[in-house]
Design goal:
The complex is a heterodimer of chains A (201) and B (483). Chain A is mainly α and 201 residues long. Chain A has nine helices and no strands. Helices cover 67% and strands 0% of the residues of chain A. Chain B has helices at residues 10-28, 31-56, 72-90, 92-98, 105-122, 126-144, 151-182, 187-193, 204-221, 229-236, 239-262, 269-290, 297-318, 321-346, 364-367, 369-383, 389-403, 407-433, 446-461, 467-481; strands at 61-63, 68-70, 349-350, 353-354. The chains are: A mainly alpha (201), B mainly alpha (483).
């Protein structure tokens, strides 16, 4: 128990520290890297409570796709971040006030619930005897099979739509024609000549 | 409900499999050829799906663990929506070929949108509702922006996408509130939890969620106060796309709204009626007055849509079986009229360019008497002039409203119809009594003539043989509201 507690505090501390650094870092690329660190540590926290599938999904989706996308955007857009950050301190009181109000509201909402203190009373991450992924998979592929398939069709339509709206066949673009490449024979294009010394062709 | 039951969803499964198959076929065919072949294939697929829907049978059946329901109500709307969608796909290729934007993806996107419409009508849980709405509207955004070299079409597509995403957000927020406060996603469980006298009242949060759901539906249906996107999208998007957007998706959205309001929340008609009445009033009044000053025919049709959705909502406000029947008849007739009108607009080409101003129709009766006759019949019907179909559509919703004690709402409806008749009749006057403008190009497009003639014949001859539509709508309504 103490080991788990120690790991929890370590992960939680790094998560919060990395989150602070995301807004404090001067260099936007550093900020995104700290964001990735925060994601990794949150995934660790999720695995700690037994929700290993959600933890892995967090890494795959947020680190693998979202954070990388952020990095690309940061690198591609020519934004003067120093200018954007001007007046950061000026807005700090207002920001702190908004944060405080939000915190009080959250405490008021969550405070009405009874937080279980023993491990036995905690909601379990998965039914007895099956893993997390299995439990979610059973639901997704049985009860919610129809919705799962429908989501797949929506994504398919999104791909078709994106291709329809953006793909252009430019007549001047040089495209690879594999059949033409395979058809090409040496005797059509190569000519072997004898070159005498000290004279051109 | 154990095991995977697919039976009642066979038409949807068929449509999905064929659409993905066609996607693969289209990718490997030469570009020009694929665009030509795909349209007739898509039309046939839509009609075959309609036949499959009829083959499933009218009994109430669930699939996929209760998220999907098939019943007589769903079957009626599915068949009408599929036939109308097939008509809208059929009229498209000529315009795209002329504007050099023919692409094989267009009919396939229409197929996916139709799949979404079928799923909307059959949705039996809050999540199924949301997924279906997304699936039906995502292809529509792409279709609206498919002419990507045109600034206005791109603007229309973007506007439609952003506002549609907002509507989806409202819908999802409403669904999450209802789920959070009632603890269930399924429509039948929602209905059971609050059925009978002395049952638990609807929690306030769930009521707020219900209002959000209605707002989302109003957005998809272009009803006031969520109508702002409609005129711009109708004017900017390619005409065949507007023909598609204006007809079949409205049927599906109305079907979804009817099911949600009558099945899970049927016991709370008094709560949602106020919202529906407000939306109906706003739509009817805005549709009638804002259309008067329009000079662009497509923009005029946008305001016409807003008005007609308002009339359909009058029937919905009644909250009775006759009200549901009236709405179903209204939307079916509306879809046919709109499709026919857009087929006529697609014939308006002069010297190789498509025109869409109302004045371009001047003196059409002398240059093309048959097209003038078809358009005049459709306009009279949209205005609700007696022997035509549009009159009966209005008659049924207003009757239902009167029966439900909403006499004043019906009176407002009749008054706004009179105002609305002004701009429909102005088009007829232009065609028959004004000096002829230059004649339109002679298009050799039998499919346009077929759709225009068929819908004109439908509105003109509905009086002689109304029973099939009326009795089918009545049976469908009885499924939803009970006897």
């Amino acid at each position: 128990m103490t080991a788990a507690l120690f790991v929890f505090y370590l992960l939680a501390f790094v998560t919060v520290a990395a989150a602070v650094m995301v807004i404090a870092a001067r260099n936007p690329v550093h900020a995104v890297l700290f964001l990735i660190l925060a994601f990794f540590n949150s995934a660790g926290l999720l695995i700690l409570v037994g929700a290993e599938l959600v933890g892995m999904l967090l890494i795959v989706v947020y680190v693998g796709a979202v954070a990388v996308l952020f990095l690309f955007v940061v690198m591609m857009l020519d934004i003067n971040f120093v200018q954007l950050r001007e007046g950061f301190l000026q807005y700090l009181p207002v920001g702190a006030l908004v944060g405080l109000v939000l915190l009080v509201e959250l405490i008021m909402v969550l405070g009405t619930r009874v937080v279980p203190t023993t491990a036995a009373a905690m909601p379990r991450a998965a039914p007895e005897g099956v893993t997390n992924a299995e439990a979610l998979g059973r639901l997704l592929y049985t009860d919610y099979f129809y919705l799962f398939q429908a989501a797949g069709v929506v994504l398919l339509v999104a791909i078709v739509g994106a291709i329809t709206l953006t793909l252009r066949h430019r007549p001047d673009a040089r495209r690879q024609d594999i059949a033409a490449q395979v058809r090409r024979r040496p005797q059509d294009t190569l000519e072997v000549r004898k070159v005498r010394p000290r004279s051109g062709i | 409900m154990t095991g995977l039951v697919v039976g009642p969803a066979v038409p949807e499964a068929f449509l999905f499999l064929v659409a993905t198959l066609l996607l693969g076929v289209g990718a490997f065919l030469p570009e020009r050829r694929a665009a030509e072949v795909m349209t007739p294939v898509a039309v046939i697929v839509l009609l075959v799906t309609a036949m499959l829907v009829m083959a499933v049978g009218p009994g109430r059946a669930f699939a996929f663990g209760g998220h999907f329901v098939h019943d007589g109500f769903a079957a009626f709307l599915k068949v009408v929506a599929l036939v109308v969608a097939a008509g809208a796909v059929l009229v498209a290729p000529g315009w795209f070929a002329d504007e050099r934007t023919a692409r094989f993806e267009y009919p396939i996107l229409a197929l996916f949108s139709a799949l979404g419409m079928l799923m909307m009508v059959s949705a039996n849980s809050l999540l199924a509702l949301y997924m279906a709405v997304e699936l039906h509207s995502l292809p529509l955004y792409v279709m609206a922006a498919i002419k990507r070299d045109s600034l206005r079409a791109s603007e229309a597509g973007l506007k439609y996408f952003v506002l549609g995403a907002l509507a989806s957000g409202l819908l999802l927020y409403g669904a999450s509130l209802v789920y959070g406060f009632t603890g269930t996603l399924m429509f039948d469980e929602l209905a059971r939890a609050h059925a009978g006298a002395g049952a638990a009242p609807l929690p306030l949060g769930a009521l707020v969620g219900l209002i959000f759901l209605v707002a989302g539906f109003a957005f998809k249906l272009a009803a006031v106060p969520f109508h702002m996107w409609t005129p711009d999208v109708y004017e900017g998007a390619p005409t065949p796309v507007v023909a598609f957007v204006a007809a079949a998706p409205k049927l599906a959205a109305v079907g979804l709204a009817l099911r949600v309001l009558h099945e899970p929340f049927g016991a709370f008609a008094d709560e949602w009626r106020q919202v529906i009445v407000l939306v109906a009033l706003g739509s009817m009044i805005l549709g009638a007055f804002a259309a008067i000053g329009q000079t662009n025919l497509k923009r005029l049709m946008a305001y016409s849509t807003i008005g007609h959705v308002g009339y359909a909502f009058v029937g919905l406000a009644a909250g009775t079986a006759t009200g549901v029947q009236g709405v179903l008849v209204y939307m079916a007739i509306y879809a046919v009229m709109t499709l026919g009108t857009f087929a006529c607009i697609l014939m308006m080409r002069r010297q190789g360019r498509y025109v869409e101003a109302i004045d371009d129709l001047a003196g059409l009766s002398r240059t093309d008497p048959l097209m003038a006759l078809a358009l005049a019949l459709l306009m009279f019907s949209l205005a609700g002039i007696p022997p035509l179909a549009g009159f009966f559509a209005k008659l049924y919703v207003f009757l239902a409203a009167v029966e439900a004690g909403l006499v004043w709402l019906a009176v407002v409806g009749v008054l706004t119809s009179v105002v609305g008749a002004f701009y429909y009749l102005r088009i007829v006057k232009l065609m028959y009594f004004d000096e002829p403008a230059e004649a339109f190009d002679r298009l050799r497009r039998p499919e346009l003539q077929l759709v225009a003639a068929a819908s004109a014949a439908f509105v003109a001859l509905f009086l002689l043989w109304p029973t099939p539509l009326l009795s089918a709508a009545e049976a469908a309504a009885r499924v939803l509201v009970g006897s």
